């Protein structure tokens, strides 16, 4: 089984970003990471994103607010970041605490700075097949991993487990744009293993540790694991039981070191695109 590590795609994007930076000259674009509270998952994602931006030669600044902040106060603070001329792009760490209306924040973000595609404007562009918008970084990272490995999705049967607006749905649209035949699964899907076994390319984005094993995979299929979970020993793991794929799947992405590595590289690419448009 071929292991599709994210490092290859990430390295390719790093070179692309370096070339764009050189061409652009002047001050490097700046990413604003907006966080409410101290959720360990958010802090870990923020650390990873910061490291990647700095490694790519890009600027990054965190804007952190207490978890008790009111909706009104947060909207005022968020608007300042939104209008800051020195901020090229924004990454809002979600989910936000319950008192903040996430939909209103998503509607308020400047679509030109919305690097992770949360604004309704960018979501509509993704669903309309307009490549000018920003797709969610994770969905785009899945496409990039496949592209870097030379795996075309055209005409292939793609099964995606998960229908969130962050991964499953936008990814299904990106797959359609590349002429895949797409099935989206969720908790009400009947006989999930049988549906998954129809896949040439199986994407796991359910957020359930090691839920999909070899029984869900057809011989020779490609498996992309988007999940980031913690297993019974406290170690990071995906939605796929990686060991059980051996001798069955043709290729699979590991966790960690797979899609997640590419997600932050895509964020950097989006930051450069936002800077170019500016
Ligand atoms: P959500 O919880 O928003 O969505 C999960 C989806 O999976 C839902 O559509 C749900 O169905 C479906 N699902 C859950 N359990 C099952 C099941 N037993 N059978 C079938 N379908 C199921 O999660 P996200 O989309 O935000 O994230 C998914 C995973 O990806 C998580 O592990 C997350 O940590 C990871 N992630 C990774 C990123 C990266 O950079 N690699 C970035 C973002 C997320 P239903 O709609 O019916 O409830």
TrEMBL record:
Q: In which pathway does it act?
A: One-carbon metabolism; tetrahydrofolate interconversion
One GO MF term? methenyltetrahydrofolate cyclohydrolase activity
- Keywords on record: Amino-acid biosynthesis, Histidine biosynthesis, Hydrolase, Methionine biosynthesis, Multifunctional enzyme, NADP, One-carbon metabolism, Oxidoreductase, Purine biosynthesis
**Entry's InterPro entries?**
Aminoacid_DH-like_N_sf, NAD(P)-bd_dom_sf, THF_DH/CycHdrlase, THF_DH/CycHdrlase_cat_dom, THF_DH/CycHdrlase_NAD-bd_dom
Q: What's in the GO CC field?
A: cytosol
Tell me the ranges covered by the Tetrahydrofolate dehydrogenase/cyclohydrolase catalytic domain, including all copies: 5-116
**Which positions does UniProt annotate for NADP(+) binding?**
162-164, 228
What chemistry does it catalyse, as a reaction equation?
Answer: (6R)-5,10-methylene-5,6,7,8-tetrahydrofolate + NADP(+) = (6R)-5,10-methenyltetrahydrofolate + NADPH; (6R)-5,10-methenyltetrahydrofolate + H2O = (6R)-10-formyltetrahydrofolate + H(+)
**Source organism, top-level taxon:** Bacteria
| Domain (Tetrahydrofolate dehydrogenase/cyclohydrolase NAD(P)-binding): residue spans on this chain | 136-277
Give the Enzyme Commission number: 1.5.1.5, 3.5.4.9
Keyword NADP carried by entry: yes
One BP annotation, GO? purine nucleotide biosynthetic process
Against PANTHER family, the record matches this protein to: C-1-TETRAHYDROFOLATE SYNTHASE, CYTOPLASMIC, C-1-TETRAHYDROFOLATE SYNTHASE, CYTOPLASMIC-RELATED
Q: What does this protein do?
A: Catalyzes the oxidation of 5,10-methylenetetrahydrofolate to 5,10-methenyltetrahydrofolate and then the hydrolysis of 5,10-methenyltetrahydrofolate to 10-formyltetrahydrofolate.
**Subunit comment for this entry?**
Homodimer.
Q: Describe the family membership recorded for this protein in Swiss-Prot or TrEMBL.
A: Belongs to the tetrahydrofolate dehydrogenase/cyclohydrolase family.
Q: What's the protein name?
A: Bifunctional protein FolD
